Amino acid sequence: MAGKRPFQKNQATSIRLRQNAARSTVGQKSLVTCIWWRSCLSSLSDSGAMRKQKACPGRRSTKLSIARQIIHSSRSRFTARLDSGVRRRLEIRMFRQFLYPLAAATLVACASTHKIPASPTVAASMGPAEFQALPSKPADYRVAYGKDPNQFADLRVPSAAGQHPVVVLIHGGCWKADYASLRDMAPIADALKAEGIATWNVEYRRLPQPGSGWPGTFQDVGMAVDHLRTIARQYRLDLDRVVLLGHSSGGQLATWVAARKRLPQGSPLYVADPLRIRGVVNLAGPGDLETEIALEIGACQGHVVEELLGGSPAAVPERYKQASPSNLLPLGVPQVLVWGERDKLVPLWSGARYAKAAAEAGDSIDFVTAPSLGHFEIASPFSPFWPKVRNAVQSLLRSSQ
Question: Which helix (H) or strand (E) covers residue 200, if one does?
Fold first, then answer.
């Protein structure tokens, strides 16, 4: 797909491919400057004082001491064969016009290079352990939406007066209990609360917990979203402004929740009046579960999709049709797909193919890509890419349907 436009605009749909070009260069330039000055000074000095330093000196006294050693060493090298009068004049000239400014520049460059600020390139190595170790605060409330111990959600509500828009958060983890929990989305919940947005962070039954899979996992996330009607008045939630946000398999579930109004009445997942939502932000979640079968061994270490749906596409074709958002298009609500171009678990082409199908079906799709990021960084509010995700959420909350 490189160098080509995979999508075209039509009257009903607009797809905008965006690249995250943010780069942090100030610290890198400072480091280059420091290394360059050090190499220049080292070439003038027989003492090798700077060559022995593995990093810029950390203390002022050390810096000054090294600078004096360099000046003394270089002065001796260039004046050894001159008579005392000429040597004295040359020493003064060297010190004032060359070595002193050079040494001073070295100290300034080193002083500005304590560390290089984190960049998307550096952050691209994040794995599940680092992602799940991101800090978060306790939720304001834990509310049950069903009778099962795993049917609950964490609610965070801003302290400001008035009603608050709501973002429903659905975590990923290959739909498996031992991979993830709602704790994964807590950092995002904190970040959105700080922006004045309430968050409803959903837990649900996951494989192999009793009642998980088909249809329980899907029923749970649907019930959780609809339960907002029950608690909206008590917690001052604005149900006219509800957005879904999910990561990885949670992105698939979030997109499915938006699509469930298109389910046939005979489906065990059908509800007559699902809560109306403004839009979906899908962070690298598969849109087609049949396609996901080819990827699940590497991403989930097993045949998780077949376990989730209770069989292969040939054995239970209707379940795949009803569980895959790609088979329920058009959703009829705006969607934002966010993908890291270095995602090795759910590759970029998977999101691109779903976006193309949604566009052709008439949905409004915004496909946002991060060139230097992988699967987990796009779901971190501490990533340089986070403003893109936050802005997508805020834009959907402001949209009108």
Answer: strand 198-202
Same domain, 96 and 189: no
Crossing angle, helix 216-226 and helix 228-235, to 10 degrees? 30
The b-or-e profile of 375-395 (16+ CB within 10 A means b, else e) is: bbbbbbbebbbbebbbebbbb
Whether the upstream peptide bond of residue 268 has omega within 30° of 0, thus cis, is no
- Is position 15 within any domain? no
Q: For residues 177 and 217, state if they share a domain.
A: yes
Answer whether 41's CB lies under 8 Å from 68's CB: no
Whether residue 100 is found in the same domain as residue 132:
no
**Nearest CA among 378, 270, 278 for reference residue 334:** 278
- Is the domain of 344 the same as that of 218? yes
Residues 6 or more apart whose CB falls under 8 angstroms from that of 302 comprise 296
Choose one of 84, 111, 138: the last residue of a domain.
111
Q: Are strands 198-202 and 152-156 parallel, antiparallel or unpaired?
A: antiparallel
Counting the structural domains of the chain, the total is: 2
- Do residue 335 and residue 369 come from a single domain? yes
pTM: 0.71
Maximum C-alpha span of the chain: 105
How many angstroms separate the Cα of 109 from the Cα of each of 28, 73, 232, 298? 11, 21, 56, 46
- Within 8 A by CB and 6+ apart from 63, the residues are 57, 106, 107, 110, 111
- What is the end-to-end Cα distance of the chain in Å, rounded? 32
pLDDT tens per residue, range 102-160: 444 433 333 333 332 333 333 447 999 999 999 999 999 999 999 999 999 999 999 99
**Residue pair 152/143 in contact by the 8 Å Cβ criterion:** yes
| 339-367 per-residue burial string, b: 16 or more CB within 10 A, e: under 16 | bbebbebbbbebbbebbbbbbbbebbbbb
Q: Which domain holds residue 55?
A: 26-111
247 located within any domain: yes
SS3 206: coil
Q: What tens digit of pLDDT does each residue of 332-369 get?
A: 999 999 999 999 999 999 999 999 999 999 999 999 99
The alpha carbon of 278 is separated from its chain's Cα centroid by a whole number of angstroms, namely 22
Question: Do the Cβ atoms of 336 and 282 come closer than 8 Å?
Answer: yes
